[in-house]
Amino acid sequence: MSFEVKYNDLAGRIGKLETAHGTLETPVFIPVIHPIKQLVDIEFFKKLGFKAVITNAYIALRYYGDEARKRGIHKIINFEDIVMTDSGGYQVLEYGDIEVEPTEMAEFEIDIGTDIAVPLDKPTGYGLQYNKAVEYVNKTIKNAEETLEVIRRNNINQQKKAQGKLDTIWAGPVQGAEHLDLVKMSASIFDNMGFNLMALGSPVELMEAYDFAMLSQIIYNLKKVIPFKPIHLFGAGHPLTIPLAVALGCDMFDSASY
Questions:
Q1: pTM value?
Q2: Which of 9, 124, 166, 171 has its CA 20 to 30 A from that of 95?
């Protein structure tokens, strides 16, 4: 993965992230696109100038299945530029669990040609008791380990290089929320695993409560462990949130709040 930082101010930075479908200039807001029932026409986002969107790979798997594997996610959602996929973590947060294995999700994200992929995680949300948060973080780490085995087994690097294409960028899904030691632990583990991009999960309830102090602490503790790699902040779309998160060192944001 190539991430070039051009300018810095506070912990914020202007950079360029190279992907298989183009260069992503950061900081960047990435709108959520529903793979089945998209209420705002994606052509509208194209006209506004968006060069990246995020969609849900789990919903695409359940609805399209082999059709998505055959056509690819870019054609499924009618977007030619950069596509990031969430693997179903939001559904896990909402419903407690989903009927899919992390290896199946990893293989599917590879097959559909996503540019930036996230392993299936177990979001901690906010307000979870510490022992339960430890369990969720460990489950997320285990899922990531299984995802890496899928990547190795499919020999992605050699296939893509043979085709003259860039690899899928995999994001390490950092969980832990207000349990800052868990945030630092999972970030360090994902860093050592070789993930080149970090995706910070479970901030939505904090932002809905305007608890920017705790959100700042979470980002700050992540950045202490991962000072240089790009950071994606899940579920951040409020205009009050983004400038603060940028100043603290986040590079990418996604939300359906538009």
A1: 0.91
A2: 171
